[in-house]
Amino acid sequence: MAAMARVSSGLAYPERFYAAAAYAGFDGSPDSSTKGVSSKFSNDGALLLYALYQQATVGPCKIRKPRSWSPVEQSKWTSWNGLGNMASTEAMRLFVKILEEEDPGWYSRASNFVSEPAVQVEKNNDTIAEPVTENGIVLLETKTIHAENGNLSEPQDKDVVSEGFGTVGVYDQWVAPPISGPRPKARYEHGAAVIDDKMYIFGGNHNGRYLSDLQALDLRSWTWSKVEVKTAGEASQVQVAPFAGHSLIPWEGNKLISVGGHTKDPAETMQVKVFDLPARTWSTLKTYGKPPLSRGGHSVTLAGTSLVIFGGQDANRSLLNDLHILDLETMTWDEMGTLGVPPSPRSDHAAAVHAERYLLIFGGGSHATCFNDLHVLDLQTMEWSRPTQQGEIPSPRAGHAGVTVGENWFITGGGNNKSGVSETVVLNMSTLGWSIVTTVQGRVPLASEGLSLVLCSYNSEDILVSFGGYNGRYSNEVNVLKPSHKSTLQSKMMETPVPDSVSAVQNATNATRDLESETVTGQEGNIREISVDNIESEPMVSKVEETSERLLAALKAEKEELESSLSKEKLQTLQLKQDLTDAEARNTDLYKELQSVRGQLAADQSRCFKLEVDVAELKQKLQSLESLKKELELLQRQKAASEQALNEKRRQSSGGVWGWIAGTPPDQQDDA
Questions:
Q1: Contact partners, residue 264, CB within 8 Å, separation at least 6
Q2: Region Disordered: which residues (predicted)?
Q3: Which single residue of 46, 586, 602, 661 has CA 20 to 30 Å from 621?
């Protein structure tokens, strides 16, 4: 008897939310937000989890604001009330996502709170059911696959064919190719790119943990292998941290560029990493200019030699709708100012470039809702527009993936806060017409958020390759779709009927042929009947002529009206041109005046500078004069003292007995 293995299939919502709430300490009691929660998380994290739990279980906040003397209750009320009318399903998903960010290993430690369904899988059994056709769609019933390296492959749902890929001749259907080698860990929000017949997968999110491994799938042999990265040995080499929500872009034929993404310790600005395939080393790309804020869930699109980055969500969970361009030739960042109305702030949208000029943004989500709007940015005029979509417009979604094949943009996957999106759609970027390529049934990886989609060539045919995703359980499945001929991928809803004028020409041709046939038969009675018919048809012809004249008159009147409107528009255009010329002339005069003022200001500044130099020199001279004056006063005092001492000495030396005997007065003695 074959051995049986018990494996966990993961929890879907809302069971996953309730398991997370129980693990976090929210047991439904009034004080559950303060028992066991604050000890596990920061105050801000605990408040946000409380608000999301209340929003998911109770609904929008409708209670009155508590009194000011209770700061804790007031903070809880403020946090809950700030969520507004957020849907309960969105609150559940955000609760689990924030818990995964705060405590990445919660799911593995939540065995006491999680009661998962068990799936009995028969090991060492490689039986695959035969494909059948149902309503023109190739289907495959559930199959059982043996465990590989301890990782059990989950049962496949319907609508995914699994057999030798080279033998499948169907187009526009998803196919599961025969995969070999050690499969990567299941994940979503990873990056994917194709270089030299290999699809590279980097990073992602698994059970709340960010990943940093680099995996490669050989698209010729469909074999997985892990890319062994060399450890950092030089200053330019780095050890890459785990990322999720980033973008992976092929570059120069042998390099991979990873742009942005969420990480445990985010930097202030967006980081750009480069992996050198021959050297098998990571390095940080040195850029110039002002880089964007750090973010994840953004879109990165290659337009010529530039990367166009739009939207996303920053490290503080704030949604963005800014536009930045990184020139890969100069490695310079530019934040672009745009005209028109840009898309609302969003993340997890899809983007594509058409004709190297137009950037298309479709879908995405905010904290409360998902979108299905289409926005177009002209990269030459940098003006946003929202064109009218044709055909069957896809439903709102976020977390979907897209890839272009010629002028067709294929989009698959995504979610709408309720379930995964099951249809794969295509947009003709020239006509803006949508059509549905195929639809899958059941909870399969193709109906997931955060999956990847790349374009590659197999047996000289374009194929789409999807990997991973999350729809309540993480996936590491690979699926392939062969699109039909590019020229026939227009929407069936866009097929236009044959114009009336064409039908009229065909009818007239048939009537002429009938008339010629009757003339060739040459019977006189038939010719007379035709003549009579022509005579009787003259009133009808006159009526048709009158109708034609009225239509012609109406067309002439409409033409005159249009010409009049055109003349007015031309006059307005001329007036605007004249106003523009006058404005340019005024601008020129103002510029000249500004230049004159600048010249005068420069001259005044020069004079001021010279005066400042003169003042400084005078100050120095004044200081030297003061010192000389002090020295002069000192010398004068010294001279006076010297003279006084000399006079005193003279008086003493000229007096005495002899002077007294001679009777010479002292004054005379001094004079002598």
A1: 210, 241, 242
A2: 641-672
A3: 602
